[in-house]
Amino acid sequence: MPRSRPRRAAEGAAAAALLLLGTACGSRLPESDFGSDTRTPVPARTDAAPIRVGIVTSVTSPVGGDTFTGPRDGAKAYFDRLNARGGVDGHPVEVRECDDGGSGVGNNTCVHRLIDEDKVVALVATTALDYAGASRVSHARVPDIGGQPIGAAYDTWPHLYGIYGSLAPRGGTPGWGGKLYGGTEVYRYFKREKGARTAAVVSYNQAASAAYARLVEQGLRAEGYTVVTEQVDFALPNFRAAAADLKQQGADLVFDAIDTHGNAQLCEAMDEVGAKVIAKVTNVQNWTSTVVDDYKDAPRCRNALWATGSSRDFEDTGNAAVREFRDATKGLKTHSQWQLEGWAAAMWFTDAAKSCADTKTGITRACVDGFMNRSENYTAGGLLVPVSFERLAEPPKTRRTCLSVARWQDGKGWVAQGDMNSTCFDVPQLPYSP
Question: Residue 9: pLDDT above 60?
Answer without folding.
Answer: no
